[in-house]
Amino acid sequence: MSRITLLQENIQDLREKLIHHPIYQQVKTPLQFQTFMEHHIFAVWDFMSLLKGLQQQLTCVSTPWIPVGSPNTRYLINEIVVGEESDVDEEGNRLSHFELYLKSMEKAGADVGKIAFFLDVLKQTSSVEQALQAANVPEGVKQFVLNTFSAIESGKAHVMAAVFTFGREDLIPEMFLSIVNSFHPDQLASFSTFKYYLERHIEVDGGHHSHLALSMTEELCGDNEERWSEAEEATRLALQARIQLWDTTLAAL
To answer: At what angle do helices 3-10 and 157-166 cross, to 10 degrees?
Structure first.
C-alpha cells in the first residue's frame, strides 16, 4: 500500500462525516443558498490564501530570482495557481475563483457586506484574526480560517499541501449542482453564475487539479515518515474544522 493511500484510509472516518453532513439535506431553497454562500465565501477566500502560501514555499516569488525546490513541484503548484487565480467566467472574462464566487453571490442576492468588510480591515491591518474579529464572523467560520492559516504559518510545504489536497469538499459541488438545477427557471436565472462556478469546480478542481495536488503532496512527503505523520495530523484538523464550519452554517439556516 502506498503511503498516500494509507493517509487516505486513515482520514476516511472524518471524510465520511463531512460527506454525510446534514447540511446537504437542508440547503434547498434560494434563501438557504444565500445564507450558505455568505458563510462559505470565507472558505473560498482562505483556499486562495493557502494556494498562494504554497506557491511562496515552492517557487521563487521575489527578485533576484533563484531556483527554489524541485522543478516538478514548481510546475504542479504554478499550474494550479493559473487555473485558480486566472480562470474565466461564463462570458470569458478573466478572474479568480474567489472573484467568480463573489460575483455569483451578488447575482444571487446574497449579502457580500461581511466578506467585503473583512477584506477592507485586512488591507488596513494585515491581520487575519483582527479582520475576522472586526467583521464579527461566525465562530465556526472564524476557526476554519484560523486553522488554515495555522497550516500556512507552519512554513511546512508538506503540511500545507496535505491540507490543500485533502481538506476540501470533493463531492459537494455535484450535490449542490443537482439542487440548483431543480430551481424554477425564474429562480435559476439568479443562480446562473453560481451554477457555472460549481461546474468549473467539478471540471477543474475536482479533476485535473486534484490529481496535481495528490502528486505534489506525495513528492513533498517523499519517504519521510515524520512528514507523512504531520501531513495526516494537519489533514485531520482541517477536516474537523470543515465539519465545524458546516455545523455553524447549518445553525444559521
So the answer is: 60
Sign (positive/negative) of CA torsion 30, 35, 36, 41?
Answer: positive
Buried b (16+ CB within 10 A) or exposed e, 137-152: bbebbbbbbebbbebb
Yes or no: say if 152 and 53 are a contact pair by the CB < 8 Å rule: yes
Quote the pTM value.
0.92
Task: Fill in the DSSP letter of residue 3.
Answer: H
Task: Determine how β-strand 94-95 pairs with β-strand 87-88.
Answer: antiparallel
Tally the C-alpha atoms within 13 A of residue 75's C-alpha that lie toward its C-beta.
6
| CA within 13 Å, CB half, 146 | 13
Residue 205: predicted pLDDT: 61
Quote the pLDDT of residue 31: 93
Candidates 221, 212, 249, 239; CA nearest to 41 is 249
